[in-house]
Design goal:
Elements lengths: L1 H17 L2 H10 L28 E6 L5 E2 L2 E2 L2 E2 H13 L2 E7 L7 E2 L6 H7 L2 H8 L2 E2 L10 E4 L5 H4 L4 H12 L3 E5 L22 E2 L4 H7 L3 H4 L4 H8 L2 E2 L9 E4 L2 E4 L5 H11 L11 H15 L1 H9 L6 H13 L3 H11 L1
Parallel strand pairs: 1-5, 1-8, 4-6, 5-7, 8-9, 9-13, 10-11
Antiparallel strand pairs: 2-3, 12-13
Helix pairs in contact: 1-2, 1-14, 3-4, 3-11, 12-13, 12-14, 14-15
């Protein structure tokens, strides 16, 4: 999603430039340059969530990533932010994280979404990079070693998670043993046709979410042609309820020991939802500026502009660029009044 959203923001700048002096004045008033940028040199020891007294070892969580780099015209791979943010959430809460993929070895990694400190820390973490460069081959994974499995998104899972016998085996075995199954964005493709020891499908009667058709088709107009299926369609057919929130905002569904998130913005809440499903309260963590912007946008869609402004004013610095991206998205869809109100929120 990040690449498209960056283009949208670039389109906003071009549009304002075409408006001349008034557009330039408006752009200056947003003061986007004052927003602090993440430090590419961040290391794990600098992350607040890893400082202080560490939790005792609570078990292992298996993060499963795609092995598919490209399929046809789709640049696939795993989305780094959906791995890195969950990775450190699990570690901060006392879990060791191992990484597996269908083929093993180094998986294809994409960095489409804007990187923040925790993402750079992952890139600068020698141990994390060793695990990522040498992922376990799923066929060799013993599910009994893990308390939970987390299926990471990116477009690749649409091609090598669904229908993969080892993906199904790992998901079913961990759930059957009382463990937690989590997935974010396109990661819920792993849940399709998973059959439990009881003979019941994992998704039968469950509430789930995943990347929606609206989100997919906005970014890739011919998604129905380039993907083997649309995730929402299949999850709707197999689950009890497919739940969805506003596009490109955090929306996580917890149904017992099954935790699913709609899109990349749901990564933090999926990881912390999995910790709770494992029986623990997640360690305190300061929300990111992105998360605060998402909270403002969620309040806007739920309760209106006045309520959203109150949320914004009560939580400190938010990511103005993310709010502006949603304003432009509304403009592109003809919701001009909504776009104007979102622009005001960005101030």
């Amino acid at each position: 999603m990040g690449t498209c959203m960056q283009r949208l923001l670039g389109g906003t700048v071009v549009l304002l430039a075409l408006l001349g002096g008034a557009g330039a004045a408006y752009l200056r008033s947003l003061d986007l340059a004052s927003q602090p940028l993440a430090d590419p040199g961040t290391v794990p020891g600098q992350l607040a969530m890893l400082q202080g007294e560490r939790q005792q070892f609570r078990g292992r969580i298996l993060a499963v990533v795609t092995s598919t780099a490209k399929s046809g015209e789709v640049a696939a791979g795993l989305e780094l932010t959906e791995l890195s943010r969950a990775y450190y959430t699990f570690i901060a809460n006392g879990f060791e994280v191992e990484i597996a993929s269908p083929m093993g070895g180094r998986p294809p990694v994409r960095m489409d979404d804007e990187l923040i400190d925790v993402d750079y820390a992952f890139l600068n973490d020698a141990d994390a990079q060793e695990r990522l460069s040498n992922t376990l081959a799923l066929a060799q994974v013993d599910p009994s070693r893990y308390s939970a499995v987390y299926f990471v998104g990116g477009k690749g899972p649409m091609f090598d998670f669904a229908g993969n016998p080892d993906v199904r085996r790992v998901a079913a075995s961990i759930h059957d043993a009382g463990g937690v199954v989590g997935a974010v964005c396109h990661g819920p493709a792993a849940l399709i046709d998973v059959t439990l020891a009881s003979g019941q499908k994992l998704l039968a009667g469950r509430r789930v979410t995943g990347f929606t058709n609206e989100e997919e088709l906005f970014l890739i107009r011919n998604a129905r042609e380039v993907f083997p299926f649309l995730l929402e369609d299949v999850l709707t057919a197999q689950a009890g309820v497919f739940s969805k929130g506003p596009k490109y905002l955090d929306h996580t569904v917890v149904d017992g020991r099954l935790v699913t998130g709609q899109n990349p913005w749901s990564t933090w809440s999926v990881a912390e939802g999995m910790i709770r499903a494992l029986g623990f309260e997640p360690v305190a963590r300061e929300s990111t500026r992105e998360e605060r912007a998402v909270a403002v946008l969620a309040a806007f869609h739920r309760d209106g502009a006045t309520a959203a402004a109150a949320v914004r004013d009560g939580m400190g610095s938010v990511d103005k660029r993310l709010v502006l991206m949603h304003a432009l998205l509304a403009t592109m869809e003809g919701r001009l009044g909504e776009a104007y109100r979102l622009q005001q929120l960005a101030h």
